[in-house]
Amino acid sequence: MPTTQEAAQALDAHVREIIEWHFNPSTGSPFWLEKASSLGWDPRKEVNCFADLRKFPPFEDDWLRGGPVRRWLPKGLAGKPLFVFETGGTTGVPKSRLASEDFKIDYEMFSGTLPEKYFPRGANWLMLGPSGPRRLRLAVEHLCQHRGGICFTVDLDPRWVIKLIKWGMMEALEKYKAHVIDQAITALQAGHDIQCLFTTPKLLESLAEELANHGSSVREVGITGIFAGGTEFTPQYTRFAIEELLGNGVYLTPTYGNTLMGLACSEPVGPHNNYKIIYHAPQPRATIEVVSFDDPNRIVGYGETGRVRLTTLTRETCIPGFLERDEGEREPPCDLYPWDGVSGVRPFRKLAASTTVGVY
Amino acid sequence: MLNIPILRWGQPYTSLDTDDVVHFETGRTLARVSQANTGLLGRDIRLAQRARDVLTGIPVGDLINMMKKAADFYLSGSLPLGDGEQTPEDFARQQSASTGLPEHMCKANMKKNHFVLSNMDQILDALTRGLDLDILTRGYGVESRGVTVSYQVQSPVLGLVLPSNSPGVHTLWLPVIPMQVGLLLKPGPQEPWTPYRMASAFTQAGIPKEAIAIYPGGADMGAEVVRRAGRCMIFGGTATVERYKGDPRVQVHGPGFSKFVLCDDVVDKWEQYIGIIADSVFLNSGRGCINCSGVWASRHTEEIAQAIAERIGPIEPKSPEDPEASLAAFTIPGAARAIWNSIESALDEPGVTHVTAKFGHRLVEKERCGYLRPTVIHCDSPDRKLANTEYMYPFVSVVRCPQEEVLHRMGPTLVCSAITADSQLERRFIDARHIDRLNIGPIPTIKLDWLQPHEGNIVEFLFRPRAFQAAV
């Protein structure tokens, strides 16, 4: 494994390469080339390391809303098959990210972190998560295919879930959840030999409960590996899931991510570390920083609380310094991930009151 | 500092997620309370029927005797609490320190709870209208008049989403265990004290620990208790009342909007009633839903408002340990200011007068808490925004309203004390379905008759009468 210093040097080199790509008129995207003309300085000359990315003004998520979405396409990628992934969108225009291969690369990298014993090669998967214009939907299917399996899916519209919650239609919400779980149990009990599962904390809870109502369990239906994500992954939830929902023989790996950044992996979680969940971004393609609530350019000390700032640096997407709607504690590098991480991720307190957590 | 676990049908469980209960004046941590994730209840609700089963295994008469023993343990015993012990003095001090209620009021609430537990046989006899309580156990039986009756339990456990700021409400759930129904409690974040002490007293008195579960947590836990329990009692504001309106599984206890109505035949003698009105507004720091928040009359309203203001307007906050303290603190930072800002913004409306203004500022802010001194408002019409409002402190609007309009303008009212000798008018009050508890005559709104139901009879909430026949 690289040392912390080597990882930092690799990140700096990667920054130079990506900035050159996005701001070079022959390879860059219309959005960034136009933005560069209004900056008053040349990113290709003045951004030489990761810290130099702070010279950019804060990335505004509203820039991602609406079209034409091709303004985000780097000229160097012209002609490639394209996907558009959306995030949000319960009301109004959703944020969108143009993608070609990023989601595949991110999930192939993630695939390398999965223990073979619980996520065997060739195993079939169930994607018990959002369908529709979500990156996650295709990414999990690609992960499964990459590992030689076939991915089963359910219909789940998270925007409808959010609307039901906002309208206070809790009975309808329960029925919709039951409808989703019913699809999952049908797939799991139909002889497809599904061994791996992607899901969210809430859906995992509902699935385990419904299986228990049928006299079965997650383990008994054949699941051995679960990859799950969401800010509801607290240490207590994880402990509860491992001790009471899953039991022996089922491996659970929490992740943190979104359409813009990709996927941050957690250090192994268990009783050895009191179920503390520490996420590390897939550096150098993306980074996580924990910054001061008052000054987003100031990184907080280790163990201190701050807002999560994401940076995405791929040939498809350059998002330098996006303030996420989450907060957490800054964590030091570890052997497996020799760069900073974040623990205790939860909705940013100033926004939490207006944030509706649906299935995630 | 105490560490208080979740109680999963009597089994302590220490969560990785905790919440500190702190002293509202010093910031000192009083207890670290384990917080439940909703999934725990999802698993444990499967054992709800066991709670009912262990209770139905004990005759109701024995359970009533256990309640009487529990009353004494609760009032006078040194009881286990989390990883420590709690004396009655500790309890009053801790409850005061986290809720802001003066200590002597906490002690008075203990006596109320003790009274209800000690008189459980009479209370159940009154609430069931003299039913042989073994009929609740068997589900059917023959009354003394020879008629077969049947009562079917609607849920093996009653869920309770309890408040932080009103320790007086606990009397409402005390009759549940002797009716052989389990308790599923979600305490208010600042008031874990009563649920845990009561559970401890019950257990000491012989109630099986499997009959009681306590899940501290946030709003999501409260919603989960409502979702999971077949019957649930929840305490909250108007929004909570609206949310669960019409749901037969849920009994919502929200603002009371309790009122005095001085009818035309007595209003010229208004001075006679100022004492009981002021007490109804002010006692127990005005926190209860049974405290009076409105006085309605067709004339003399300015004089009435003035007289109430002279009695309660000068009162100032005192230390919670002071036996003379009569105002509770708002312990959530910014809460007192937010309430006052809301009131102040409505004072500009024409026809609204702040009658206690001359007794000084109402908002008193301290380093970690705030107080609101008693406030009397005069409204020249029920149309005014402040005419029918309620806040968690001694606040009252004196409203001028023609007598013939009072009943249809007063809105939902938990306790109405209507002072009149007019029998026709009395009939109209008796028939008014938006009034819950009705007092005819000069009776304080805060005076309770423990032998009568409060906001719905809990027996009728938990048991459904139905037809029943058995072939012999």
Can you lay out the helices and strands and say which pair or pack?
The complex is a heterodimer of chains A (360) and B (472).
Chain A (H helix, E strand, L loop, with lengths): L3 H20 L6 H10 L3 H4 L36 E5 L7 E5 L2 H10 L12 E4 L7 H12 L4 E3 L4 H9 L3 H19 L5 E6 L1 H13 L11 E5 L5 H12 L4 E8 L3 E5 L11 E3 L5 E6 L13 E9 L4 E14 L9 E7 L1 H4 L8
Parallel strand pairs in A: 3-4, 3-5, 5-6, 6-7
Antiparallel strand pairs in A: 1-2, 7-8, 8-9, 9-13, 10-11, 11-12, 12-13
Chain B lengths: L1 E3 L1 E3 L2 E3 L4 E5 L6 E6 L3 H7 L3 H9 L3 H17 L2 E3 L2 E3 L1 H12 L3 H16 L1 H8 L6 H5 L1 E3 L5 E6 L3 E5 L20 E5 L6 H12 L7 E3 L4 H10 L2 E5 L2 H7 L5 E4 L4 E5 L11 H9 L9 E6 L3 H12 L22 H12 L5 E3 L8 E3 L4 E3 L2 E5 L15 E6 L2 H7 L3 E7 L3 H9 L3 E6 L17 H5 E4 L6
Parallel strand pairs in B: 1-5, 10-11, 10-13, 11-12, 13-14, 15-16, 15-22, 16-21, 20-21, 22-23
Antiparallel strand pairs in B: 2-3, 4-5, 6-7, 8-9, 9-24, 17-20, 18-19
Describe this protein's structure.
The complex is a heterodimer of chains A (about 350) and B (about 475). Chain A has one domain (about 85-350): 3-Layer(aba) Sandwich (Rossmann fold), CATH 3.40.50.12780. Helices cover about 30% and strands about 20% of the residues of chain A. Chain A is built from ten helices and 13 strands. In chain A, strands 4-3-5-6-7-8-9-13-12-11-10 form an eleven-stranded mixed beta sheet, with helices on both faces. Chain A has a two-stranded antiparallel ribbon with strand order 1-2. Chain B is α/β, with parallel strands linked by helices and about 475 residues long. Helix content of chain B is about 35%, strand content about 20%. Chain B contains 16 helices and 24 strands. In chain B, strands 17-20-21-16-15-22-23 form a seven-stranded mixed beta sheet, with helices on both faces. Chain B has a five-stranded parallel beta sheet with strand order 12-11-10-13-14, with helices on both faces. The termini of chain B are far apart. The mean pLDDT of chain B is about 95. Classes of the chains: A alpha/beta (about 350), B alpha/beta (about 475). The interface of A and B includes residues 168, 235 and 236 of A.
